[in-house]
Amino acid sequence: MARMSQLRLDPLTGRWAVGTQDRAERPRAFLPRTLRVQADSDRPCPFCPGHEEATPPALETYGPNKEWLVRVVPNLYPAFEQTAPMVVSHLGPVFTQAQASGIHEVLVYTRDHDTSWSDLTDDQAGMVMAAISDRMQAHESIPGLRYTQAIVNSGREAGASLEHPHGQLLGMSFVPREITDEQAGFARFEGNCLMCTVAEAEEEAEHRVVHADDRAIVICPFWSGTPYEMLVVPRPHRARLHDATEADLASAGRALRTALVQLRRRVGDVAYNLVIHSAPYRTSGVFHWHIHVLPKLTTTAGFELGTGVAINVVAPESAASDLRAALAANVRA
């Protein structure tokens, strides 16, 4: 007998997601990572040690004895550049434009070409989070910037153009819609902090928790829109990532690493996106920084594109159980 689909509301954005477990039983429900990022055979990897001259001079380097472990460099092909304030021009009744001013940086978060975030040690994971925090703090001091988006695209399907593990930091002169939607979600919530409440409620319910320690919790959120979607929530309440303590940053980095290990053991080497949401600069109001983990296991089809309503073929309760079991099985082995 077919199970009835469910609508679940994302309180952060006010968007609905459809959960329909039966569709996961269709042939080829999930996409393996079949597309590899193609290396340019005519030139070495610009992010590998020894090829530092292939990038602009580093903005920051981290590591002992001048041997970098994490490196932040300007993007050679920036989506945003120059830090002039945003000026909107109206060219007609329906033609509005503005200069894409801002900063675009590349975060090379490991020296090793054939690894990923899931292979980082505890110390490395903390170092990467500290680097993100440092760059966000630097961006906040620039008057024209209002928000910085930190991302990691792992795999071609997730949008990576170079194989060497790296992330990106995009400081921009406006606050993007996804963030204003989340700000509205926090403002709508009739309580202290929406994200603190999510963490507390999910821990009490237990069955959507993937990982938990004294400083961070990882869940497959109740409103998951994609299979094995996860949310990393630091327990201490901080609106902005760069206001978090070193210990809290390190814990979030380790929790994210553990979650990605569980994902790889459960579904294999799949592409994914990591998206860090932090409160915009120089704003007030309740917010709580967090990290979205979005595996690329299914395709976005016409219904999703036409309505903005996601269809999730794996219930978050099942996903969390699978991920916990994957880690437990490895421990027993």
CATH class equals Alpha Beta
Mean pLDDT: 89
Q: Sheet with the most strands? A: 10 strands, antiparallel
Radius of gyration: 20 Å
Low-confidence stretches: none
Q: Globular, elongated, flat, extended or rod-shaped: what is the shape? A: globular
Estimated helix fraction: 25-40%
Termini Cα gap: 37 Å
Give the CATH superfamily. HIT-like
Q: What percentage of amino acids are in beta strands?
A: 15-25%
Number of E strands: 15
Count of runs of 4 or more consecutive helical residues: 6
Please list the strands of the largest sheet in the order they lie side by side: 3-4-7-9-8-13-14-12-11-10
The fold-level CATH name is HIT family, subunit A
Into how many domains do the coordinates divide?
Answer: 1
Q: What is the N-to-C order of secondary-structure elements (H for helix, E for strand)?
A: EEEEEEEHEEHHEEEHEEHEH
CATH architecture annotation:
2-Layer Sandwich
What structural category characterises the helix and strand content? Answer: alpha+beta
